[in-house]
Design a protein that fits this description.
With 316 residues, the chain is an alpha/beta fold. It has a single domain, classed as SGNH hydrolase (Rossmann fold, 3-Layer(aba) Sandwich). Helices cover 48% and strands 8% of the residues. A 5-stranded parallel β-sheet has the order 2-1-3-4-5, sandwiched between helices. Helix 3 packs parallel to helix 12.
Length: 316
């Protein structure tokens, strides 16, 4: 496709009144990032669109949930409003939403389950299939039905830990997630290995399920309404790996938050957290999320997927 034809195709989706609607959890919210560095902000600048952010830290899809609560900041992890409630609570004009950036599933599976090597792989797989597969597909169907003028970007997850992650880092992250000291019930090397294997299994399985959900929706719609976007982050980019693209704990000071939004989050955590452990986990909740370079990588993946869609559309 020539640059001119690409430009004409892009104009079709750009416009002063177009909106990029963002629904989902902390990954699409951009946990720990300044506004300008969030994946959604970078993609919106490329599209010439305005961002409407509904995503927040900790959100679950919540197909079977009706309870709701609000936090003093989107940086504070909370299941509610669920992603389904985010969709139901949209009050703007659906016609001006030309793009939706969304994800979901890990908080329904629960991060503690992903990081628990005592839970069998088959149980982790069952929860992942239920939430990143069945529930995400139901959510995606509702999104496509609501925003009939929009293309939907479904952003995949990434490995928080890999076999390239330093052993001390694996232990520190396990302790942060569970709020307990790393004291394995069996051989420490095997215990760490199982933690990593759980993280890798969730990443690989959820990737396939999210991709499958988008393909199913496109077949049902008879056109390419949804686009799966691989995060672009792999095992080399996990926390405590040599080429990490995620916020990491400072292993010399485990109470130090590493990110750009810590000042805002500290104040909100003081208001929302019920105890010292919860405050500590809240303060460090950016750990394991894409840092500035990681968010930029995910934005590049989104922009590349958009470009590929234009190419197919123009060729057709």
């Amino acid at each position: 496709m020539s640059p001119a034809s690409c430009h004409k195709s892009l104009i079709h989706w750009r416009g002063s009144m177009s909106t990029l609607l963002v629904m989902g959890d902390s990954v699409v919210w951009g946990q720990g990032l300044a506004e300008k560095n969030k994946t959604a902000s970078i993609v919106a600048r490329h599209l010439g669109a305005e961002v409407q952010m509904l995503a927040h830290s900790g959100a679950k899809i919540g197909i079977r949930d009706s309870y709701t609560v609000t936090m003093p900041s989107r940086e504070v992890p909370c299941f509610f409003p669920t992603i389904l409630q985010q969709l139901q609570g949209f009050t703007g004009d659906p016609a001006v939403v030309k793009w939706v950036l969304m994800n979901g599933g890990i908080n329904d599976v629960e991060v503690q389950r992903v990081f628990n090597p005592m839970i069998p792989q088959y149980e982790l797989e069952l929860h992942t299939r239920n939430h990143c597969g069945r529930d995400l597909q139901k959510l995606l169907q509702k999104v496509i039905s609501r925003f009939t003028n929009a293309r939907v970007l479904v952003l995949g997850y990434y490995p928080v830990l890999s076999h390239q992650s330093a052993a001390q880092g694996v232990e520190a992250l396990f302790s942060l997630v569970h709020g307990v000291k790393f004291t394995p019930l069996f051989n420490a090397d095997l215990f760490r290995n199982e933690i990593v294997e759980h993280c890798l299994r969730f990443w690989k399985l959820s990737t396939g399920l999210l991709r499958g959900a988008t393909e199913h929706m496109n077949r049902a719609a008879g056109e390419r309404r949804a686009i799966f976007v691989d995060s672009g982050l792999d095992e080399d980019n996990a926390t405590f790996a040599a080429q990490s693209l995620l916020w990491e704990l400072d292993l010399d000071d485990l109470s130090k938050a590493p990110d750009e939004a810590v000042a805002e989050r500290r104040m909100a955590c003081e208001q929302a957290a019920a105890g010292e452990l919860q405050k500590h986990q809240c303060l460090l909740s950016a750990v394991g999320h894409p840092n500035v370079a990681g968010a930029a990588r995910m934005a590049e993946q989104c922009i590349e997927a958009i470009g590929a869609m234009y190419s197919v559309s123009t060729a057709g």
